[in-house]
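HUMAN: Would you supply a protein with fold tokens?

ASSISTANT:
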Amino acid sequence: MLRTFLPQNATFVTLLLIAQADNVFSFKECIDFISCRQRLVDCIQESGCDRVLVTHGTDTMIETARYLAATIHDKTVVLCGSLRPEAFRTSDADFNVGCAVGALGVLPAGVFVVMSGRAFAHDAVSRDPQTGRFVAK
């Protein structure tokens, strides 16, 4: 479906579609985050895509971004999530995915977190303990 809307840039979406279709893995099912993060690195490296969007839970997104950045240097990887679950009417999930897709088109190679309309480099983002929002470090 995304290929219909993004015909010239559809390649960077391929990994996301394959991961959803084949149930590559879910972080919720992981006991060992290191091995799950390594599986994600392997999927990204083997994908042949130079731009990759990863939807991720917000609790451990920053740690995953840092892990990816240690090994992925030649691709643009954007992680995004939502502060409110997609099932909620007030969810920010659609907005964050839209911003992440836009960011993929303009960001250089590297690993980024995109939340609430802002793109952060993996090493320049933290989470405000009071609000839970992602902020510049």
